[in-house]
Write a structure and sequence with these properties.
Length: 483
């Protein structure tokens, strides 16, 4: 890594929610800066006013803050290179666009919409690539000045060389070469005085001292034009790191336009933010080795762009669920109980020991939103089908389940020590007396207490949670249903 201080940036457009691919770009930019004690800058790119969404800037701030990606400079905290909102830098872009015209890297274009639409129609009908034909490229100084004096509306276009090759190096994809003849003389400054995204990007990255640019691989095709701008201004070219997309499957990209989940959506589904950040870091990047669980601080110590894969990353929900479960299990019980409490109270109105409930769920929970379905039997016994008493592995039938409950009922009614040890000794006394496998007694008890096949604990744990009166009432109900 160069001895020059590393400065990276995250430059989102305020066009809606923060999707996962966008957040991954921010994460990688943050990790690279922090790995080398550099600066992570937030810049809001709002030049496309038509796509601006009210409240989207706040979503950007809140998401970065919640994810732990603290920026060193930005619109909300300032810095030495502001303003950090592009719409507030309009005069700057205009000045540099005109400077580029003087340097020969750009030119005034006075073509109106009608001519451009007609040009496009002809090119499409001829089945040739649609690009500007350079009509205004070689206007004389006199012609240009005359049109300017007359108030003719204009844009400023980049003057791409018509011959030769433009090459650039990317940390992931290596050296890429593009024939200049295939590039278009794109607009840099629009007729309203606002820059296009491509032009504003280059100006801001240079003026803000950005050393490493991390962005999606969809910008690979635009990078030659960026390089030509840097060369025209005689500016140092930054290090490029283009990341392949995050895909929902083999053929579809994750996209806000397709309604795919945002960061906020994922958190609302019961995922822990630490697990989500860990998961996103591994979407197409590997630290090497088999380890997969990393804190954000640990990621800053091991992140290296060379570990980014050239192939698209698939958003694997099963892996995210697994990873979230790992994070939940690592939580102290009290912390897990605090996080689970809104889900407990959403479902359970009874006065029960919530720490005990948390203890049952702690090692059996992948998502916080799984909790209500796992505990919906506590307040009232659901109306269940007795077929669930039949379990091949436990060797239970309707008949022997009824026998088991009839053996259990008087023992529990007489039990004074309603504790884990007391219940264990009483139930295993029945098992020993009957000379049967554990499941032949404990499975029917679980079914009777919960009305469910899958519960966060076995018969003993459920009896402790429900208490003696409720447990006995449910076992009597089970006998009644099986009789």
């Amino acid at each position: 890594m160069d001895t020059k201080k590393v400065r990276t940036r995250f430059a989102p457009s305020p066009t809606g929610y923060m999707h996962i691919g966008n957040l991954r770009t921010a994460l990688y930019a943050y990790l690279l800066a922090k790995r080398y004690d550099g600066d992570f800058i937030l810049r809001i790119e709002d030049t496309d006013q038509e796509r601006y969404v009210e409240g989207a800037v706040d979503i950007i701030y809140n998401t970065l803050k919640d994810a732990g990606l603290k920026h060193d400079e930005g619109p909300d905290i300032g810095g030495n290179y502001g303003p950090y909102i592009q719409s507030e830098r309009r005069d700057l872009y205009k000045r540099y666009a005109h400077e580029l015209v003087e340097k020969g890297g750009a030119y005034y274009c006075f073509c109106d919409k009608e001519r451009l639409d007609n040009l496009r129609s002809i090119q499409e009908a001829s089945k040739i690539p649609t690009k500007y034909d350079g009509y205004c490229r070689n206007l004389s100084k006199e012609e240009i000045q005359q049109k300017l004096n007359s108030g003719v509306s204009y844009v400023i276009r980049q003057k791409i060389p018509t011959t030769g090759v433009t090459a650039f190096d990317d940390e992931i994809f290596g050296t890429i070469r593009v024939e200049n003849s295939t590039l278009d003389d794109n607009v840099l400054l629009k007729s309203d005085g606002l820059p296009t995204y491509n032009f504003a990007n280059v100006i801001d990255d240079h003026l803000m001292g950005i050393t490493h640019i991390i962005r999606g691989s969809e910008y690979l095709s635009s990078t030659p034009k960026y390089n030509l701008l840097y060369e025209s201004f005689r500016w140092e070219i930054p290090v490029y790191i283009h990341c392949p997309p995050v895909m929902k499957n083999a053929t579809e990209k994750l996209s806000k336009r397709n309604g795919d989940a945002s960061y906020d959506d994922i958190i609302a589904k019961g995922y822990l933010k630490e697990a989500v950040i860990n998961f996103i870091a591994l979407l197409g990047w590997s630290p090497g080795g088999d380890r997969e669980i990393f804190t954000l601080e640990e990621l800053t110590k091991v992140f290296d762009p060379k570990g980014i894969n050239k192939s698209p990353a698939i958003f694997d929900t099963k892996k995210l669920n697994w990873m979230n479960g790992e994070y939940i299990r690592q939580l102290p019980l009290e912390k897990f109980c605090d996080l689970a409490m809104p889900y407990f109270k959403q479902t359970v109105k009874k006065d029960i020991d919530f720490i005990e409930l948390a203890n049952l769920l702690h090692q059996r929970c992948e998502l916080l939103t799984d909790i209500p379905d796992q505990i919906d039997f506590i307040d009232s016994l659901p109306d269940y089908d007795t077929e669930m008493y039949v379990h091949k592995k436990m060797k239970t039938t309707l008949e022997n389940s009824l026998d088991a409950l009839k053996e259990i009922l008087p023992v529990l009614e007489a039990l004074d020590d309603w504790s884990e040890d007391g219940l264990h000794n009483a139930l295993f006394g029945i098992i020993e007396k009957m000379g049967v496998k554990n499941g032949l007694i404990l499975w029917p008890m679980r079914c009777a207490l919960s009305g469910k096949q899958f519960t966060p604990g076995g018969g003993i744990e459920l009896a402790l949670l429900l208490g003696k009166p409720e447990s006995i009432a449910r076992i009597k109900k089970g006998i009644e249903k099986l009789s």
